[in-house]
Amino acid sequence: MSRAPLVFAAGIFYPGGEHITGWRAPGSEPHAYLDLDYYTRFAQTAEAGRFATLFLADELYVWDRFRSGIDHGVNVRLEPFTLLSALSQVTSRIGLAATVSTTYNEPYHVARKLASLDHISGGRAAWNLVTSASDEEARNFGRDAHLEHGLRYRRGAEFVDVVNGLWDGWEDDAFLFDKQSGYYADRAKLHVLDHRGDHFAVRGPLNIPRPVQGHPPLFQAGASEAGRDLAGRTADAVFTLGGGSLDTAQGIYDDYKRRAVAAGRGADDLKVLPWFSPIIGDTQADAEERFHELAALTPDRVQIDLLSHYLGTDLGERDLDEPFTFEFDLDGFNQSKSGYQSIAALLAQRPYSIRELAWEVLRRRFTLGTPDTLAAHLVERYEKRAADGFILMAPTLPDTLVRFVDDIVPRLTDAGVYPREYAGDTLRENLGLARPAGRYAA
Amino acid sequence: MSRAPLVFAAGIFYPGGEHITGWRAPGSEPHAYLDLDYYTRFAQTAEAGRFATLFLADELYVWDRFRSGIDHGVNVRLEPFTLLSALSQVTSRIGLAATVSTTYNEPYHVARKLASLDHISGGRAAWNLVTSASDEEARNFGRDAHLEHGLRYRRGAEFVDVVNGLWDGWEDDAFLFDKQSGYYADRAKLHVLDHRGDHFAVRGPLNIPRPVQGHPPLFQAGASEAGRDLAGRTADAVFTLGGGSLDTAQGIYDDYKRRAVAAGRGADDLKVLPWFSPIIGDTQADAEERFHELAALTPDRVQIDLLSHYLGTDLGERDLDEPFTFEFDLDGFNQSKSGYQSIAALLAQRPYSIRELAWEVLRRRFTLGTPDTLAAHLVERYEKRAADGFILMAPTLPDTLVRFVDDIVPRLTDAGVYPREYAGDTLRENLGLARPAGRYAA
Ligand SMILES: Cc1cc2nc3c(=O)[nH]c(=O)nc-3n(C[C@H](O)[C@H](O)[C@H](O)COP(=O)(O)O)c2cc1C
Ligand SMILES: Cc1cc2nc3c(=O)[nH]c(=O)nc-3n(C[C@H](O)[C@H](O)[C@H](O)COP(=O)(O)O)c2cc1C
C-alpha cells in the first residue's frame, strides 16, 4: 500500500491564535470569541483547505496563578463538545476533535458524547486524550492537588479501555427496528461490559449504538515516557512538539512508530503529527518582523510568568537579567514533564537570563518563513518521514489560517503530497485509518 | 403586572414519543433516531408553534433490568448537550433544555457546558435538574447502588449553589478586550468562588464569561417532599405529573407557589408546568381507538416489567390476574418516590390485578380528546391556576407534535391565552422570567 497523503489538523487553543496575547494582533476579533460565527469561518476555511480535522485544545481552569494571566490572557473559551456539535451543522467533511481530560471525566459520559457527536456528524468525531497538568484543574474538581503523573496515565489507559469497551457493547448490527415483530434490538448482539478495574467500575451497556466510525479516532499529545507508551499502544494519531531539526523530528517519529509496532500494531496505524505554528512573511525578513510585532504585544510580565508556570516555580522575585540557574527535578515535577524537559534542554545548551529564556521559549513555538520555504519544509518533513502530517496552530487568527489555505496548501498539492479532495466521508477515511471491527464481531 | 402567557415545552424522552414502544406506531421512524434531521424537524415544528423550549429528558443507562427492555424498548438516545448544540444552528428562537443528573456530574463541567450552549445559542440554554433514580445508573459511574434519596437531593442543592456561583464569578462587564492597553479582563470584576461544601470543593473561576441569560433557567421535576422543597427554593420552572382532577392540579400548583414564596421569592418566579401527553382524535371515540392501537403495540410483558420497575420488585412470577396486594414502604424506597406514591394511591382506590394495574398506569399518562376538548382543557387549567404552561410529551412522534401545532395551538391563540409571536430573543424572555443580576453586581 502506498503511503497515506499528508494530513492537517486545524488546532485552536486560545481563540485568538497560538499565543496567550494573540488577541491583541491587529486582525484579531476578541469580541467574537463567544460567537459561533467566528468558529464557523474558522471551520469552513479549514474545510476549504481539506484539513482532515478541527482540533480543539482545552483546559479545565482559568490561568490565574499569576495576575498577568487575568489582566492580559484570553482565559475564556467555548466548551469543545458544544462547539463542535454546533459546527457539525455548518460543515460536512472536516473532522471534529475534542480534547478530553481522562483525569477529570467519567468514561460513560465521554463514550456517550463522542458516539453522539459521531452519529450527528456522520462519522467525523474524534478525541484528544490528555491527563491534564495543573493543580488549578484539580481544585475545580474536588481535589487539592493534581493526580501524580504515573497514576494519571494509568487512569488514562484504563479510561481508553472502558470507552472502547462501551462502544463495542452493541454490535454494529444489533438494532432491528422491526415494527412487525416488535423487536427493537437483537439481545444476542448486546454485550454487557461489566468493567471493574483499579480506577473505574462501569457496567454498561452504553445507551447509544456503536459509533459510525466504530471507534472515533483517538489523538494524544503526551510526550513523556508514560505518554509515549500510552500513545504507542492506543492512539490513532499523536501530536508532537515539532520544531527542532529534521534529525530530532525523525527520531521522535521513529520512536512512536516503534512503540506502535512493539504493541502489535502497524506503523501506519499511528499517525505522527508535529505541531506547526507558522509565521508567514512575504520574505524571511518580513516573517521576522511579524514575529517581533507579535512578541511586542506580549507584556514581559506575561512571558516570565508563563516560564514560572512551566517550571512550577515563581521566578518573579529573581533577577531577570542575571544568568539563570535552576535545579531540574524531573521525577518530582508533576505538570507536563515534556515541557519541563525541553526547557532543561535549552539551558543545557548555553546560559540564558530569565528574560532571554522566556523569550526563547516563545520564539521556539513558531516556524518563520515564506509560503515557498514553509511549504518546502512541510514537504521535506513528510517525505523524509519526520511527520505524517501536522497540527496547524496558527499564531494569529483568522489571518494565518486564511493565508495558509490560500498560499501554502496549493504548493503542497502541486508537490503531489496533499489531496485535492477529501478521500472519504468519515474522519477515519480522511486520515487513512481503517474502521475497527467490534471485539464481538463474528 | 398581568400574568405571563401560557408556555409550552416540547419534551422528548423516547425518540419515538412518550412510550417505550412508541417506535412501533405506524407513522414512527425508528431508523432515524440517530439522525439530526429527525430532531431538526421536531425542533422546527415546535418553533413554528412558538414553544418556549425543547426539553430533552435523559437517563444514564440502558433499561435492561428485564429482558423485555432490550427486546422491545427504544434504549438509545443522543446525548442532550451534543444534540441541543447542533439544534441551536437550525433554530433561532426556541429554548434548548438539557437534563442533567446532579448525582453523576461535576458542577464545573455542567456550568461550563450550559454557559457555552447559552453563548452559542444567543441565550436559549436551560437545564433540567434530576437526581437520577436507578441503581443501574450508579453502576455506570463506579457505585454499586444509587445514592440515598435525601443525600442525593442535598447534593443536588449544593450543585445548584456551585453552578450559580461559577456563573456569577465573572461580572457581566468583566471583559475589556482592550487591544490598546493590553488588558483583556478587569481583575476587579472577577470573584473566585472557592466553594468548600459537604459534597463539592470547587475553586473556580469558570473559563467562560457569565451566560447571556445570567443563569440559564433551571427546570426540575422531582415531586417528592425533598424534590418540591428544592424546586421551591431554586427552580425557575417545575414539571409536575399532571393528569388528575382540576382540584388536584390546583393543589399541586399552590403547593409549589407557596414553597417559592416561603423561600423569599415571588410566586411568578416559579412556573408550574404539568405533563401533558395528548391522544388527539377527531372524536372522543376516535381518540379512544388511537389509545387502544398504541397500547396494542406494547407487549404485555413490557408493561408488567415497567410496573415491576416502578415498584422496585419483580412481579413477573406472581399471578397476573389475581387481586394484587403490595406492602408499600415509601421511606425504604430509593427510586422515584413520587411515582411509587402515585401507584399506591391507585391501589388505595380499588382492587386491581397486576395486569390491570400495569395498563391503568399506562392509561393515566395520556389525556384523550379532540382538538376542541383538549384546547379547552388547557385553557381551563391555565386560567384556573392549575398550570402556567405544559410540557408536551407527545405519545407518538412526529405526528402528535405536528397535529398539536396545527390544530390545538390556533385554538389557544384564538382563546387569547397563547402568544402569536415569541416575546423575546432569550428563553428567559419567552418564559416571562427576569434576568438575574450577578451576586457581585454593583
Ligand atoms: C500539540 C499539543 C496539544 C496539546 N493539547 C493539550 C490540551 O488541549 N490540553 C491539555 O491539557 N494538554 C495539552 N497538551 C499537553 C499534553 O497533552 C500533555 O498533557 C502534556 O504534555 C503532559 O503530558 P506529558 O507529561 O506526557 O508531556 C498538548 C500538547 C501538545 C504537544
Ligand atoms: C415531566 C417529567 C420529566 C422527567 N424527566 C426526567 C429525566 O429526564 N430524567 C430523570 O432521571 N428523571 C426524570 N424525571 C423524574 C424526576 O426528575 C425525579 O428524578 C423523580 O421523580 C425522582 O424524584 P422524586 O423522588 O423527587 O419524585 C421526570 C419527571 C417528570 C414528571
TrEMBL record, chains A, B:
Residues 27-387 form the Luciferase-like domain. Keywords: Flavoprotein, FMN, Monooxygenase, Oxidoreductase. The keyword Oxidoreductase applies. It comes from the Bacteria. InterPro entries: Diverse_substr_monoxygenases (IPR051260), Luciferase-like_dom (IPR011251), Luciferase-like_sf (IPR036661), NTA_MOA (IPR016215). Belongs to the NtaA/SnaA/DszA monooxygenase family. This is LLM class flavin-dependent oxidoreductase. It comes from Microbacterium jejuense. The lineage of its organism: Bacteria, Bacillati, Actinomycetota, Actinomycetes, Micrococcales.
